[in-house]
Amino acid sequence: MKNLKEKQKRGMKRDWILLGIILIIAVVLLSIFPDRKEPVINTLWDYFIEMALILPAVMVILGLFAVFVSKETVIKYLGKASGIKGIFLAIILGALPTGPLYVAFPMAASLLKKGAKISNIVVFLSAWACIKIPQELVELQFLGIWFMLSRLTLTIIFIVIMGIFIEKVVEWSEDGKNIKSSGGV
Amino acid sequence: MNVTAIIINVIAAASLLIAFAKDREKATKSLKIAGKSFIRMLPMVFVILIIIGLLLGFVPASQISRFVGEQSGMTGILLVGVVGAILHIPALLSFPLAASLLEDGASVSAVTAFITTLTMIGTITLPIEIKELGKKMATLRNGISFVIAIVIALIMGAVL
After folding, report:
1. Is A111 helix (H, G, I), strand (E, B) or coil?
2. Dihedral (C-alpha) B132, B133, B135, B136: value to the nearest 10 degrees?
3. Does the residue A73 lie in any domain?
4. In this complex, is the C-beta atom of B96 within 8 Å of any C-beta atom belonging to chain A?
5. Residues of chain B contacting residue A68, judged by C-beta atoms under 8 Å apart
6. What is the pLDDT of residues B107-122, one digit of tens each?
7. By C-alpha distance, which of A44, A45, A47, A62 is closest to A141?
8. What is the distance between the terminal CA atoms of chain B, rounded to a whole angstrom?
9. How do residues A51-67 score in pLDDT, each as one tens digit?
10. ipTM metric
């Protein structure tokens, strides 16, 4: 089992290598087709400006939540919530920018062991994966408010349906057995 | 500078001020985390920027729309859906990429399918998900997420 830091470091190295390769490809392509230099550089610059305007702010918001909202807080609130309130909380807590998805799995596992509802956990994980607040902000910037709002609404509706569905399926097939015992097969 | 960018920056600045007023030490720590995540993300930011530049500069809109545009229909949507599920790029960077594809002739449905499967489904994190939550829940969640993503994509295509 490799530790997280090492994995991150390796990921960083891989990203830099990827950047090098892409850069070489771009330079080669542009020297073969010099007439394309202008549109490519212009597009690149436009998108660069748009990203530069928001990414630092998005990162600051990410950092603040990571420090001020602890894992324990999330587990505490989600563990005892049920019904509509539970689903609502699962979406809100999942959407808070508190870290990458793999952080959420152990949290979800411990919540399930403590008796949290499967539907809430599925909604929580899915919200964590795809309706994170920083993501929504960037989506707003690049794709506009109608795109962002429609996709957000549809996503919330469907992950709630999925959560309830998965809960029913797991309950049928496991007959109330502990979820963890089926793991690691 | 557009309105969205201004709003986001105001929110960030205001939250930062409140954080500093509340707890100096924690606020400094979050700034450090922000800086670190920013640097970690930087190479991918440039990779995506160059890809966008090359995409819009070299690939004609007619080519893009043939594969992922309106006339590609269901096949195109499923295709990008699968690509999104497998690809592992930071979700934050999928939006500029999606915007550039839209600009270059991709359909709303295809772009939605791409973003949604990319964020919802984690093939790279699947082993951890299986280990923590069991095979049944992990495969159900990822499998159904794919179907959902396609449905959301189709609705988005019809609405927008």
Report:
1. helix
2. 180
3. yes
4. yes
5. 19, 23, 26, 30
6. 999 999 999 999 999 8
7. A47
8. 25
9. 999 899 999 998 998 88
10. 0.88
